[in-house]
## 1
Amino acid sequence: MRTLRIHRCQAVRGYPQPPPVRIEVEDTIANEHPPSLHDDEARDIVLALRGALPGGTFDRVALHMMKAQCGLLIVSHQQIEAASSFQARVWRWVLEVFGADVGSNYRERALRFFEEALELAQAAGLEAKQAHGLVDYVFGRPKGEASQEVGGVMVTLASLCAALGLDLEESAQTELSRIWQPDIIDKVRRRQAEKRAQGFAEGGDHG
């Protein structure tokens, strides 16, 4: 969100009392994703209003109007951010790191999901022999429907987290914040190139 800060200036000859104020906008958006269009609009609007009078100062009437407009803008921005789903925020990260072609390649996304699922299973104590046997078991059965399988993934993941004493949502939010760090993004891109060279990653074709 954007925080509106109001500073009282020293009295200036020609301005009504009380002394005029200076409006500042403090950026307090978490670094888990780049500023959105609404962030840019907030900055542009406030800067335009700030420059409406000499020295960026405002009398009481102008201040009242400013606070009303910025209040509405801040509330609107907060509502937009709150309504932004975890999936949408992850998708912004995918587009930033990999681009639209690789990001929308569903087989590539399935490979990365499978890799992470295996790593979680390994962390929970599953042995390689069990994993290999389960792969043969699953691929020996008819292919399922994606929407239903997503539901199954979420149910079993939630139950695994409960058994491990982990908070699913907290773990997800923590990881999303971590992978937005510039050094982690660079590392992810390097590893993606290595996986592609080894045949464990796909390019941008959807097929």
## 2
Amino acid sequence: MHQFAYSAAHDLRDPLRNISLATSLIYEKFKAKDYDEIEDLLKRLLHTASYGGSLVKNLLDYSAANREMKMELVCLNDVVTQTITVLNTLIEQAEAKIVLKKLPTVWGNNQQLQIVFQNVISNAIRYRGDLPLIISISTQRKKSLWVISIKDNGPGVPEEFKDEIFQPFKRLSAKASGRSSGLGLSICRRIIEQHGGEIWLDTQSGPGACFKFTLQKG
């Protein structure tokens, strides 16, 4: 817990410092009536504030994933449709295509499962390669469980990092489109474990990244 708190404070300190610096620079520019760089500084300020807000949201999601949650019958098609609506702007900007096969009804928590799909889909967009991005979502029955697969055609994740990526504040790529809090997959793991399932990176599914997790049948 001490290490987690230290890492969270460290990650929050950077955007706050950058916001303070950009605000000071804007103030000095206005005082000197030098308006040439103010637009760029304001853009930097908005971007940093957005990242800080995203980090705070992920910290709250991480905390919420530890609490007991209400379970009920959940239609995964509805969950994914809601997720696509929330991420619509991001998906359109990346010109990504979501291929969605008919998904089952499971025993779970709608809001928490939406967070799982949001994080995995957002990561696929953030770490996409040069090819037009395609994200495929499908399921497979396994005894009393459903195995959910979210696969993309991006550069993928090296096999040696398949466990490390689920640790809090782990960022493996400096080539991401946009900054990451490093909490997304650790939040996913906590939520799926709360559902009595498991989540993993399938490194045998061919090119790209393929995340799989199990949920109880509804």
